[in-house]
Amino acid sequence: MSERCASNDSTLLFACSGGSNVGQIANDAAVALDKLGQDQMYCAIGVAAKFPGFVETAAKADKRVLIDGCEVQCLKKAFEAAGLTAEVHVIVTDLGIEKGHHFDRTQDEVARVAGAVSKLIGVTPCCSGS
Q1: What is the DSSP string of 33-66?
Q2: What angle do CA 126, 117, 93 make, to 5 degrees?
Q3: Contact predicate 1/85, CB 8 Å
Q4: pLDDT for the residue 6
Q5: Topology (CATH) of 11-121
């Protein structure tokens, strides 16, 4: 289990995982941040489906971070429909990554998105061995 490097607040990460490269990049970035100990990824579709337990957990978080793949902003709209807002919202295509209806992505693209999210939530990467 990785060490959490975030502040003592509870921050939950939610990601698009849509049918395009940018949806997959959003998801990969959230997974990478969770694995690095930079807050916890949580089920976006459970909130979108308005399952009470999922909405309640998301509502109780000190900070909700949404990573949408493109300008359609499905994730943000789903959260608004569930009565929730996000403290941080990142859109992959706003970071200069072009949307395509394929699943090709690079580690550099995932790192670019993860880095942008980290910067916005004010978390620095964990240092192993320190």
Answers
A1: HHHTTSSEE--HHHHHTT-HHHHHHHHH-SEEEE
A2: 140
A3: no
A4: 43
A5: Rossmann fold (3.40.50)
66 contact partners, CB below 8 Å, separation of at least 6: 14, 15, 44, 75, 76, 79, 86, 88, 89, 90
Total residues belonging to the chain:
130
Domain extent listing, the chain: 11-121
Give the separation between CA 13 and CA 88, rounded to whole angstroms. Answer: 9
* pTM of the predicted protein model: 0.87
Ranges of the chain whose pLDDT falls below 70: 1-8, 123-130
Report the C-alpha gap between 121 and 67 in whole angstroms.
12
Residue with tokens 């998801």: 27
pLDDT digits (tens, 9 = 90+) for 96-115: 999 999 999 999 999 999 99
CB atoms within 10 A of CB 101: 8
